[in-house]
Amino acid sequence: MQKSVRYNEGHALYLAFLARKEGTKRGFLSKKAAEASRWHEKWFALYQNVLFYFEGEQSGRPAGMYLLEGCSCERAPAPPRMGAGPAGARDALDKQYYFTVLFGHEGQKPLELRCEEEQDGKEWMEAIHQASYADILIEREVLTQKYIHLVQIVETEKIAANQLRHQLEDQDTEIERLKSEIIALNKTKERMRPYQSNQEDEDPDIKKIKKVQSFMRGWLCRRKWKTIVQDYICSPHAESMRKRNQIVFTMVEAESEYVHQLYILVNGFLRPLRMAASSKKPPISHDDVSSIFLNSETIMFLHEIFHQGLKARIA
To answer: Is residue 270 part of a domain?
Structure first.
């Protein structure tokens, strides 16, 4: 003889009380009986991932409950009518919204429900879809990774802000020094004005000599600067910088290709297989999908952030 499953009835009643007061979705639905093809109107209340139903809206004790973890919800066609009835009754049945809750294992009969209005039925289906605790854990993991990444960005920005603050302080000191030099140069210029007025009366040959000297000084400066630039281009430091830049660009291209392949993996395989696993006759189970594509979405998200950071640094 198979033993019945024991559960904490007192806590279940407490959860039913919370569902009546604070449930995500509450209202009347028609439930198809398991023994016969009859529909019975019950008052349903969804709380977290548990669906309670009561005999009436004022009932204090639930008539039953369903655990929705690992379940899926699908729109169902209207069942065929047996026999002939009034035309008004047939039209009312055709307008009703039918949907089915499918449980994640074989041998469990699905829960067939219906409601009067299509909008109400869509709201019930959406609420049941969002009742999975596993989906909440996945969203929590993604948000945790986002939070860690944002914290790292904030810490990096703090370090950069401190460096900029020190640079501004150094620049303020340099500005004060340059102001002092400008004042000194202006004073020197004031003292040299009488001498400059005398230079206007200089001999033309002296002016030509000074012009040639100025040209030679400019040519020597340009030649010296060209030598300095050529020496740096041939230096080990410049060579190491070129190698580093080549490695960085190669890494960015490889990361871009990897992100593209992850995008194809997630959108072309993982998500379609996950939708197929939630169908009425799944070709593959959710456990198989999770074991094959373990953390694929999280890895793709992290590499997208890393790739965007690399491109921002290069830009």
So the answer is: yes
- At 125-165, the pLDDT tens digits run 888 888 877 777 888 888 999 999 899 999 989 998 999 99
Q: Is 267 helix (H, G, I), strand (E, B) or coil?
A: helix
Helix, coil or strand: residue 295: coil
Q: Which domain holds residue 101?
A: 9-131
Q: Is residue 150, in this structure, part of any structural domain at all? A: no
Instruction: Region of 44 please: left (phi>0), alpha (psi -120 to 50) or beta.
Output: beta
* Residue 4: alpha-carbon gap to chain centroid: 45
Residue 138 lies in a domain: no
Cα–Cα–Cα angle for 98, 102, 108, nearest 5°?
A: 120
**pTM given for the model:** 0.42
Q: In Å, how far from its chain's centre is CA 29? A: 36
Count of domains forming the chain = 2
Residue 295 inside a domain? The answer is: yes
19-23 LR contacts (CB < 8 Å, sep 24+): 19/45, 19/46, 19/47, 19/50, 19/52, 20/45, 20/52, 20/54, 22/47, 23/47, 23/52
Q: For the chain, how far is it from start to end, CA to CA, in angstroms?
A: 73
- Contact indicator for 61, 16 with CB cutoff of 8 Å: yes
CA distance 36 to 34: 6
Given 102, 131, 160, the domain boundary residue is 131
| pLDDT tens digits for range 160-216 | 899 999 898 999 999 999 999 999 988 888 887 766 655 566 678 888 888 889 989
